[in-house]
Amino acid sequence: MEFLNTTSLDIKAFFFNAKTDYLPYYKNFSFEINQDDKNIDLKEILRLIKLENENFSYPSSNLVFRVNDLVVTGEEKVATVIERLGNELVITPILEYRSNNGLIINDDDFMANFDKILGKFATDKDREEYKKLYSIYYASESFIYEHNYIGDAIIIMASKMLNDDNRDDILDAISFDVNGINSCEYENRFFDGVDYTQEIESIKSLVRDTHKVSFIDKLQSKCRAKMRKDIEVGDIKSKNVAVYYGNSSENIEVSNEIKINSARRLIGQSLAKINPNMMYNKAGKMLLEAFDKGAEVLIFANSSDCQMVRKNIADIEFYMGREATMSLISVEEFRKIS
Q1: How does 200-232 read in b/e, with b if 16+ C-beta sit within 10 Å?
Q2: Domain range annotation of the chain
Q3: What is the per-residue pLDDT across 122-134, written as a single tens digit (0 to 9) for each?
Q4: Confidence class of residue 278 from pLDDT cuts 50, 70 and 90?
Q5: Alpha helices, DSSP H only, in the chain?
Q6: What residues form DSSP beta bridges with 65?
Q7: Could you tell me the pTM of the whole model?
Q8: Residue 56 CA neighbour count, 13 Å, CB half
Q9: Cα 80–chain centre separation
């Protein structure tokens, strides 16, 4: 959206106080932003919200949060945000489940995890370098699915600290079965930030795959898959349709579309073999979001994602404890029938 001489900024802001509230809630705010204000930063917008409602809270340091689900800092220019995201903004904590008071989160684990996992290998310089990765740590997508995850920042620092003397010990330290590196499917969700794909993929390639599937688990999985029947699409023009994009740049136009928030979040493609439960969790939450919003057909922009979900749908539903009775089709199949 182009920044005009005067732009109305409509904001939906997150509220929650762990001492007084049972559930979070949102309040709406509206501000007029003119050319003279175009260089103000997001921290100033938070201050204006606070002036209108004293119950709104945000941290005085380490100010990172989400705007329309993208991670931002308080220094981000409002004009830049409006140009990219438009004038309707939703402000939430970087991790909602960690909120103590508004945008203020419980961050006790940031240094605690580093000291526990990498502390004995670290120099003072390493510790200072790690502190700069505060926003990277809490922007970790895997926290949404595994609250005890070690954090992307730990993995990034581990990749920087590896040497011939500590290599095996550091790899062992970050290789927890449930919440370690095998739960990491890195996504850069920053509005404007450094991408660490190369560092994370590099160290992931060094970690041994220790996941084993028992004979009983394999047998039960086969039985579930045999009992789960595919759901025919029928007349798609009369159906409510959701689209899952993942990392695809496709733009798929459908009638009766139901928008899902997880449309561009990864669903565990890279974890299917090394941590299938994490894949079931990620894919399952996307499927159930679409299903609960009323989707009858789910289109996958990437055929590989479609194949993975179809292959594992019975196990995904078993893991989530619910069925997602939708037709699952690839974009290629959609184009043939539309």
Answers
A1: beebbeebeeeeeeeeeeeeebeebeeebeeee
A2: 6-102, 109-204, 215-337
A3: 999 999 999 999 9
A4: very high
A5: 42-52, 78-85, 109-117, 124-131, 134-138, 142-145, 152-161, 167-173, 197-204, 215-227, 276-292, 303-320, 331-337
A6: 72, 93
A7: 0.89
A8: 21
A9: 22
Handedness of CA 213, 218, 219, 220 (dihedral sign): positive
pLDDT in tens, 132-184: 999 999 999 999 999 999 999 999 999 999 998 999 999 999 997 678 999 99
**pLDDT tens profile 316-328:** 999 999 999 999 9
**Rounded to an integer, what distance in angstroms lies between the CA atom of residue 121 and that of residue 166?**
7
Q: In the 8-state DSSP scheme, what is residue 182?
A: G
For residue 211, report the phi and psi dihedrals to the nearest 5 degrees: -70, 130
Instruction: Give dist(CA 241, CA 232) in Å, integer.
Output: 14
Residue 119 pLDDT > 60, yes or no?
yes
Strands 257-258 and 241-244: parallel
Point out which residues pair with 29 in neighbouring strands. Answer: 11
Phi, psi of 280 (to 5 degrees): -60, -40
Q: Rounded distance, CA 118 to CA 173, Å?
A: 7
The reported pLDDT for the residue numbered 115 is 96
The two three-digit tokens of residue 219, written as one number: 């047998």
Amino acid at 319: Y
DSSP secondary structure, 89-143, as one string: EEEEESSGGGEEETTEE--THHHHHHHHHTGGG--HHHHHHHHTTHHHHHT-THH
Question: Which option is the CATH number for 6-102: 3.90.1150.10, 3.40.50.2300, 3.10.20.30, 2.40.128.110?
Answer: 3.10.20.30
264 and 245 in contact (C-beta within 8 Å)?
yes
Residue with tokens 């954090």: 151
